[in-house]
Design brief:
35% of the residues lie in helices and 21% in strands. With 238 residues, it is an alpha/beta fold. The chain is globular. It starts with a strand and ends in a 6-residue tail after the last helix.
Length: 238
């Protein structure tokens, strides 16, 4: 079975413009997370879509389902988020196995709640690649020169840009593979994880690349939020 996993466990500390996490801010006529969820609901291949939400915002998320997607709320399960991104994924993984049992064929498509412009093409290609390869990352080619600095003051290295890509989401996996690799990591290794694909990279598991889109931006800063509002034709909060 194939499952969506929308990650909304954060509190948006880098964008302090409202008294709520950034995923719940209005984007046009509905919250950011609703736009994201609606994109996942367009994909008929999902058995169910799980949304990992900070425990303080579970009831708010339930209210959003009732208001914006009442006719499809049965396809969505809300799960308490963990202390970080990957623990939220593991909470969702545990809930999937509680609901549907353990199965080697289960696929999980994980996605940032604040990437509301993901396309159905990207989601479908993630699913196909995960079924074929077991682990997938969505990327776009790096257009700027990448500069490495060990101390943040002087350049240490300038890698070949033709080999550089910028990571996006979705990131998709065979669920059993991801759980096995994650639980094999030491606590020190877990602390250096920046996303789920690094779980695979640390354990030398090949990760297939799927082409993303520049428009699949992540709303992290106020500037990102204003760009997203312009893309959708709305007005940003001042």
């Amino acid at each position: 079975m194939i499952f969506g996993a929308i990650l909304a466990g954060g509190i948006g500390s880098r964008m302090n413009i409202a008294d709520m996490p950034k995923q719940f801010l209005q984007l046009g006529d509905k919250p950011i997370i609703v736009h994201t969820l609606e994109k996942f609901l367009l994909c008929s291949r999902f058995e169910r879509i799980y949304v990992g939400v900070h425990p303080s915002w579970l009831l708010h998320m339930q209210d959003l389902l009732e208001k914006y997607v009442p006719d499809q709320k049965e396809r969505v399960t809300i799960v308490p988020g963990g202390s970080d991104r990957n623990s939220t994924i593991m909470n969702i993984a545990d809930q999937i196995e509680s609901d549907f049992g353990e199965d080697d064929s289960h696929i999980i498509v994980t996605h940032d709640s604040v990437r509301p412009f993901v396309t159905l093409r990207i989601i479908e290609e993630n699913i196909d690649a995960a079924l074929a390869c077991g682990a997938v990352d969505t990327v776009v080619e790096a257009t700027d020169t990448i500069v490495v600095s060990e101390d943040g003051k002087v350049i240490t290295e300038i890698p070949n840009r033709r080999k550089m890509f910028q990571g996006q989401t979705p990131q998709s996996f065979r669920l059993k593979l991801l759980k096995s690799l994650y639980h094999d990591l030491s606590e020190e290794e877990k602390e250096i994880l920046t996303d789920a694909c690094k779980i695979c990279v640390v354990r030398n598991q090949p990760v297939k690349l799927v082409r993303g889109e520049v428009s699949n931006l992540k709303i992290t800063t106020i500037s990102d939020y204003k760009i997203a509002q312009a893309m959708i034709g709305g007005n940003a909060v001042d």
